[in-house]
């Protein structure tokens, strides 16, 4: 057989039928559902008199618009949407991890946490950050509401086969530099539409030495450069993360059998990709975005660009517009930019390791008096574990607010938003205009850098925080 | 879905690259559970800026949007496609689209046409000040003032679905026997109903 990439292996084993001149019909192993992109899909089923074909391959949670402070939901629209999800799940028999169940959380945090995001699977969700689950060697991608309805009704999706790209992360990551910095640097290098049309496999020594949770951070941001999906071939790091989780194969024969299958999920040495890209991380510094999309990124020791340096008028215009929105003068040093808010959270960086990293930076110190800082764990499970480890105490003693799980200020569908003009160091994934609140200014950073900036009141290399704080 | 064959309409020019779906429809409008009524919130924040292109009086009844590369990048929210359609757009022409946006648009009969950047620029010049274009999916041509004719590529199956206004879920359900046969030889690894409640 011709050599195959990991993607091709998974794709081939999930094609139900591939009629001539039509897209392939791809089988979906797991469908993740949340309140925002599903109500119209369920309504579509009702109107057409259709059922959910495989509720047993579906799971729903509440994450996007849930408040993260204690107390009832005061926004009537948010409540109506959450009620709709509850009713839809009851009516169609879909398992639901509702707010307050102790198992809720950001959909891309709870899949891996439950052990239901597994190597070799096809996973979809009405959310563009579904690529997160690709860290397990799954083919996972975001879909729109019409496609959500299609999957609910048929457990399949018509799909054109995407192109393949491999990104090799070479070298050893320096101290204080994280997975977030790796993916931001890659996006800066390739551009925000550099991945459009591709499924990307991330590989190389720097990927192999990452923990599972860091790999999820890398795959999570695949959509931020337009990729259809991002994935990492599973290895012992993957298997030891999964072992014993509720949805993982049962210990003994099932587990051994699964391991045998998962070990075959790799790209053949002589398989060809449509495109290859190399990112050297050996001299990588912590990254900070300065503009209004994730490609607009520089090292923390660097400076904001000057539009005058761009020859292409369209590019110059885009830089000028971004600087105007961000309220930044050309050539401002990143470390001279002061901040008002810090958000540690989101499907990119709200897992237990992220919280441990941030807690280690702020332990025994205090948030700068002009900064309001927020920690929002990715799931109820992460929150519980963090509290068991005493991380909540470290954060609150340092002046952080400690909240309940949800998407929160990553997209500001709940009350956690920036005020116009406020500047935020955020561990989330998008710095688009108004993303965290109308007129708000978002700078994407790693958890360590966000924590360090909270103490210093401006951006700073996390390794230098002792002096800066 | 309503069939799409041909439309003649005024074209609006939004000459910006990388317009993300957060701009097309901001998050505060995603809490509704209906599919309709998003048009009035289209480009909500940008519409407040006096010099925003789409506020020009000559674009008031535009049905075709000419824009820059990577239109509809970012979030998967189909609300972005719904908002454009509800506002009155039937066609978006750009050098490239965000993947998910493009699929969402196809699914609801909002025609996403990809043309080389130079061709989009030509069309932008041709309609400057509020000209009209005709987009014909059957002949795969955009025609405009002064005998301007710009052919475009369109994937055959998607074109046929749009021309006939097919329901692709109904199409897939015709293959139910094949799906059932596939399920017999492929057991999905996880049963979500057996997870701890």
Structure characterization notes:
Chain A is of the alpha/beta class. Chain A is built from 16 helices and 19 strands. In chain A, β4, α3 and β5 form a beta-alpha-beta unit. Chain A is globular, with a radius of gyration of 22 Å. The mean pLDDT of chain A is 96. Chain B is 29% helix and 17% strand. Chain B has 197 residues and is an alpha/beta fold. The interface between A and B is large, with 82 and 58 residues.
Short description:
The complex is a heterodimer of chains A (469) and B (197). Chain A has 469 residues and is of the alpha/beta class. Chain A is built from 16 helices and 19 strands.
Secondary structure layout:
The complex is a heterodimer of chains A (469) and B (197).
Chain A: H1 6-12, E1 15-17, E2 24-27, E3 30-33, H2 39-48, E4 58-61, H3 76-92, E5 96-97, H4 107-114, E6 122-125, E7 139-142, H5 145-154, E8 156-159, E9 163-170, H6 179-190, E10 198-203, H7 205-208, H8 212-220, E11 229-231, H9 236-242, H10 253-263, E12 275-280, E13 287-289, E14 297-299, H11 313-326, E15 341-344, H12 352-362, E16 372-375, H13 380-388, H14 391-397, E17 401-402, E18 423-426, E19 441-444, H15 447-456, H16 465-468
Parallel strand pairs in A: 3-4, 3-6, 4-5, 6-7, 9-10, 9-12, 10-11, 15-16, 15-18, 16-17, 18-19
Antiparallel strand pairs in A: 1-2, 2-8, 13-14
Chain B: E1 6-14, H1 21-24, E2 64-67, H2 79-87, E3 91-94, H3 99-108, E4 111-114, H4 117-126, E5 132-136, E6 141-144, E7 148-151, H5 156-164, H6 168-173, H7 176-185
Parallel strand pairs in B: 1-2, 2-3, 3-4
Antiparallel strand pairs in B: 1-5, 5-6, 6-7
Short key terms for the protein model shown above:
heterodimer; A: 469 residues; alpha/beta; five-stranded parallel sheet; B: 197 residues; seven-stranded mixed sheet; 7 helices; 17% strand
Helix % of chain A is: 25-40%
The largest pleated sheet of chain B is described as:
7 strands, mixed
- Ranges of chain A where pLDDT stays below 50 over 5 or more residues in a row are none
Order of helices and strands of chain B: EHEHEHEHEEEHHH
Strand content of chain B: 15-25%
Could you say which structural class the secondary elements and strand pairing of chain B correspond to? Answer: alpha/beta
Numbering strands along the chain, what is their spatial order in the largest sheet of chain B? 4-3-2-1-5-6-7
Radius of gyration of chain A: 22 Å
Distance linking N and C termini of chain B:
38 Å
How many E strands of chain A? 19
Q: How would you state the average pLDDT of chain B, rounded?
A: 96
User: Total number of helical segments of chain A?
Assistant: 16
Percent range of helical residues of chain B = 25-40%
- Lateral arrangement of strands in the main beta sheet of chain A: 5-4-3-6-7
């Amino acid at each position: 057989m011709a050599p195959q990439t990991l993607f091709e292996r998974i794709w081939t084993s999930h094609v139900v039928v591939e009629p001539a001149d039509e897209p392939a019909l791809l089988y979906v192993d797991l469908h993740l559902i949340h309140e925002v992109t599903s109500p119209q899909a369920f309504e579509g089923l009702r109107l057409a008199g259709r059922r959910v074909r495989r509720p047993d391959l579906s799971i729903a949670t509440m994450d996007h618009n849930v408040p993260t402070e204690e107390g009832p939901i005061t926004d009537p629209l948010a409540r109506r949407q959450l009620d709709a999800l509850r009713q839809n799940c009851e009516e169609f028999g879909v398992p639901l991890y509702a707010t307050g169940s102790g198992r809720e959380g950001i959909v891309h945090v709870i899949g891996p946490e439950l052990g239901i995001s597994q190597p070799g699977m096809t996973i979809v969700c009405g959310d563009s950050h579904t690529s997160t689950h690709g860290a397990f060697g799954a083919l996972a991608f975001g879909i729109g509401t019409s496609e959500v309805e299609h999957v609910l009704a048929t457990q399949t999706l018509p799909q054109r086969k995407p192109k393949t790209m491999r990104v090799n992360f070479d070298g050893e990551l320096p101290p204080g530099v994280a997975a977030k910095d790796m993916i931001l640097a890659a996006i800066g290098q390739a551009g925000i539409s550099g991945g459009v049309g591709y499924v990307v496999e991330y590989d190389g020594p720097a990927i192999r030495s990452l923990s599972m949770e860091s790999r999820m951070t890398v795959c999570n941001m695949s959509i931020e450069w337009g990729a259809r999906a991002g994935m990492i071939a599973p290895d012992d790091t993957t298997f030891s993360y999964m072992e014993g989780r509720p949805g993982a194969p049962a210990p003994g024969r099932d587990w051994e059998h699964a391991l045998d299958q998962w070990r075959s999920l790799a790209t053949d040495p002589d398989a060809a990709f449509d495109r290859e890209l190399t990112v050297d991380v050996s001299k990588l510094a912590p990254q900070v975005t300065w503009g209004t999309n994730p490609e607009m990124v520089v090292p923390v020791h660097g400076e904001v660009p000057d539009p005058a340096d761009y020859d292409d008028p369209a590019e110059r215009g885009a830089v000028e517009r971004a600087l105007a929105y961000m309220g930044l003068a050309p050539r401002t040093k990143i470390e001279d930019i002061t901040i008002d808010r810090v958000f540690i959270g989101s499907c990119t960086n709200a897992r237990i390791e992220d919280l441990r990293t941030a807690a280690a930076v702020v332990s025994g110190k205090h948030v700068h008096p002009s900064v309001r800082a927020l920690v929002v764990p990715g799931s109820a499970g992460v929150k519980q574990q963090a509290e068991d480890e005493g991380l909540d105490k470290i954060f609150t003693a340092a002046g952080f607010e400690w909240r309940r799980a949800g998407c929160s200020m990553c997209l500001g569908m709940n009350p956690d938003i920036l005020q116009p003009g406020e500047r935020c160091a955020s561990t989330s994934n998008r710095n688009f205009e108004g993303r965290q609140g109308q007129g708000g200014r978002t700078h994407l950073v790693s958890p360590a850098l966000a924590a360090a900036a909270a103490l210093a009141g401006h951006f700073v290399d996390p390794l230098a925080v002792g002096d800066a704080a | 879905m309503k069939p799409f064959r041909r439309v003649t309409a005024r074209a609006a020019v939004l000459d910006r690259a990388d317009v993300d779906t957060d701009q097309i429809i901001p998050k505060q409008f995603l809490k509704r559970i209906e599919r309709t009524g998003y048009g009035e919130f289209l480009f909500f924040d940008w519409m407040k800026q006096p010099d925003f292109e789409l506020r020009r009086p000559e674009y008031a009844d535009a049905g075709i949007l000419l824009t820059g590369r990577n239109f509809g990048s970012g979030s998967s929210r189909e609300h972005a496609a719904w908002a454009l359609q509800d506002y009155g757009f039937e066609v978006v022409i750009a050098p490239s689209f965000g993947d998910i946006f493009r699929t969402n648009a196809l699914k609801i009969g909002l025609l996403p046409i990809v043309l080389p950047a130079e061709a989009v620029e030509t069309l932008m010049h041709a309609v400057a000040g509020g000209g009209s274009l005709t987009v014909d999916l059957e002949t795969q041509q955009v025609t405009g003032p002064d005998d301007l004719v710009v052919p475009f590529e369109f994937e055959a199956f998607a074109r046929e679905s749009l021309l006939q206004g097919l329901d692709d879920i109904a199409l897939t359900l015709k293959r139910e026997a094949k799906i059932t046969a596939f399920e017999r030889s492929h057991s999905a690894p996880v049963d979500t109903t057996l997870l701890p409640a």
